[in-house]
Design goal:
Rossmann fold; 8 helices; seven-stranded parallel beta sheet; five-stranded parallel beta sheet; 2 domains; alpha/beta; binds flavin-adenine dinucleotide
């Protein structure tokens, strides 16, 4: 790991690092310019986190007064130029596109080679990837190959005005502190960001950009890993919590697994997903995929109903960007009331079924629309 916080001396690398002092980047690294996003796609669709990052990259690039570029890899017939056009609409200026048979389906070796070669040739200042399974795997190997710093699972990205460095913020010490990490003596500065941490940008359909086609200098015989088949894991990712519009979430205040049924009943009427706090997952009341928070999923629904949840910081970091938070808690001093938009002091075990019943009654009175 080549990153260091600005308040610590970095062991080697040539830059002078100390809080409050001006930082001088080594001469050979000053040529690095531009903010890049690696576009992740699967089965013909770009992962939404890539668009969230293009939106964020646009803001960083505007303050650095440089370009936003995306890198996108795939097989000979994959619609990478279409993905590039979409990237332009979200704020990118340029797209580096690499078509090659060995890039059909993700494998670490060819993707690492493709991305490190592009970085060495075009020298971006900042490189962002989604903190997905693929993004985490690729970011680690690219950072290691390039001998640069990587800040994983960031919750905020900014530019430090003194050093022009990427100030990447992430939780630390079990979520009790937020630390800001800067890679001061190496380039590019790399970061991964979890899905839904950044807002989805609004596309501008008339925006255009430049597509640069590149070739991969690698053949199948160079690659140890072979992709024989793709077998979807039907048990995983069935719960699409990060992209749900409405989430009803429960905590220990619901007391037992049986009472979680009240949440599922309400979710069915609302067309919502069910979320939970970590202790409920640890107690085995719900699947781990439903955990919201620092060690669970980050969510940004239009409506988040929190029932029997105290609102600890580790839960808060995963849901505080929700448009509307409604909290139900028996304790008027529960921390969740500090950041909920609407608070109901009351017993969730009584309120949840009453809410479900009221919504059912309301729907029953609506005229039938086929
Ligand atoms: C490293 C680390 C990572 C963590 N990651 C996460 C994470 O990702 N997600 C997460 O959620 N937590 C996480 N935690 C745990 C977190 O610190 C809290 O312990 C947890 O969020 C609390 O869960 P809770 O609100 O369900 O339970 P509690 O804190 O026990 O709160 C229960 C609440 O229910 C209320 N209540 C009781 N009865 C009722 C009732 N009948 N009706 C309405 N309200 C009622 C109580 O007043 C109380 O406020 C993490 C902790 C650590 C150390």
């Amino acid at each position: 790991m080549k990153s260091s916080t600005a308040s610590h001396k970095q062991p080697s690398g040539g830059a002078i690092i100390a809080s409050g002092r001006h930082l001088e980047l080594p001469e050979h690294l000053k040529a690095y310019r531009g903010v890049w996003v690696f576009l992740e796609h699967d089965h013909g669709h770009v992962h939404s986190v890539s668009w969230e990052l293009v939106g964020e990259a646009r803001k960083l690039a505007d303050s650095l007064q440089c370009e936003v570029a995306v890198a996108v890899f795939g097989g000979p017939d994959e619609p990478l130029e279409q993905f590039a056009a979409e990237a332009f609409s979200f704020g990118a200026d340029k797209a580096y596109v690499v078509h090659d048979q060995v890039l059909l389906g993700y494998r670490n070796e060819p993707f690492t080679k493709g991305l490190t070669d592009l970085v060495n040739k075009y020298r971006p200042e900042i490189l962002l990837l989604g903190a997905t399974s693929m993004g985490r795997d690729l970011a680690g190997s690219v950072a290691t190959t390039l001998s640069t710093g990587l800040t994983a699972d960031c919750t905020g990205l900014n530019i430090d005005p003194t050093s022009r460095a990427l100030a990447a913020t992430r939780p630390t010490f079990g979520g009790s502190l937020l630390c800001t990490i800067m890679t001061l003596a190496y380039r590019p500065q790399m970061a991964t960001v979890r899905p839904r941490m950044m807002a989805m940008p609004q596309p501008k359909r008339n925006r255009c950009g430049e597509i640069v086609q590149e070739a991969l200098e690698m053949i199948e015989a160079d690659i140890v890993t072979k992709l024989l088949d793709f077998i979807a894991d039907t048990n995983s990712n069935q719960i699409n919590l990060p992209y749900a519009d409405v989430i009803v979430s429960g905590g220990k205040g619901l007391r037992n697994q049986e009472n979680f049924r009240l949440l599922f009943d309400l979710a069915r009427v609302l067309g919502a997903e069910v979320g939970a706090t970590r202790p409920c997952v640890q107690a085995g009341w719900v699947d781990a995929d439903r955990q919201v928070g620092q060690t669970g999923k980050t969510v940004r629904p239009k409506l988040y109903i929190a029932a029997g949840i105290s609102g600890a910081v580790q839960h808060r970091v995963g849901m505080e960007s929700s448009d509307l938070i409604v909290a139900i808690n028996t304790d008027p001093n529960a921390p969740i009331f500090d950041y909920a938009h609407y608070g109901i002091v009351g017993d969730a075990l009584q309120l949840l079924p009453a809410l479900t019943q009221a919504l059912n009654d309301h729907l029953a009175q609506q005229p039938y629309r086929p």
